[in-house]
Design goal:
Length: 236
């Protein structure tokens, strides 16, 4: 996915109220950007980090700028995509372009379709005349320690609910996939964050025994585009 216009570089001053970030621009001005990430953003919201913002060009928006990327501190600095609203688009694009080889052969992709026993919406529903429908729940991974990506980065009751919904669909004879989208290029594996949300980790292990598939793909991230490129293992 290419950004529609050049991103604006700055330095993070602070992230606050979950959805806001103050950023200092190279000319010394301070702007407030929308932060499309509901997680704790551990390790990727450090003050003085280099960040990049997109400009919606919509003057009617209260916050027309959106925080897209951050340069995280590691042995080798890495760019990380923090905008969780891009995850579904990235996964759908990777499926359509044949990158996600495990999810080929479907002729239609629908988004935000109601499903399950607990009144949920699935991120992506893949369908084809000769296949059982495939329900894909997408999660964005931003918490990284070493070369391991962890999900979630905060307790998520909703995340456990989504796993149960996938298990229910698998029991109905459908294909059900939990897909971890890693907007970062240096992650070697993804694991459930047992140390943060033990219930989510236990639920993931349980639903994998009930027919749910777990996949993770990492991205190539630049200031011009974010593209899912390579599958990494999900180790539970």
């Amino acid at each position: 996915m290419k950004f529609s216009s050049p991103l604006i570089e700055g330095r993070l001053i602070r992230r606050y109220k979950r959805f806001l970030a103050d950023v200092e621009l190279p000319n010394g001005d301070t702007v407030t950007a929308h932060t499309a990430n509901t997680g704790a953003m551990q390790g990727c919201a450090e003050p003085d980090s280099r960040v990049w913002l997109s400009d919606s060009g919509n003057a009617k928006r209260k916050y027309p700028l959106t925080w897209e990327l951050v340069e995280v501190k590691a042995e080798q600095p890495a760019l990380l995509g923090i905008n969780t609203q891009l995850s579904n688009k990235l996964v759908a694009e990777a499926i359509e372009n044949g990158v996600v080889t495990e999810l080929q052969g479907y002729s239609e992709i629908q988004r935000e379709v109601r499903y399950g026993a607990e009144n949920s919406r699935i991120d992506l529903l893949l369908q084809a005349p000769d296949k059982a429908p495939c329900y894909v729940e997408v999660k964005n991974v931003t918490l990284v320690q070493g070369e391991t990506g962890y999900f979630p980065d905060a307790v998520t009751v909703r995340g456990s609910k989504h796993l149960r919904e996938l298990a229910y669909m698998a029991q109905q004879g459908c294909r059900a996939v939990i897909f971890y989208c890693v907007q970062r290029g240096d992650v070697a594996e993804v694991r459930p964050a047992q140390h943060i949300d033990a219930e989510y980790a236990a639920t993931l292990r349980q639903v994998l025994q009930q027919g749910v598939e777990a996949m993770a793909y990492r991205a190539v991230v630049t200031v011009r585009e974010v593209v899912l490129a390579r599958r990494v293992p999900v180790n539970v």
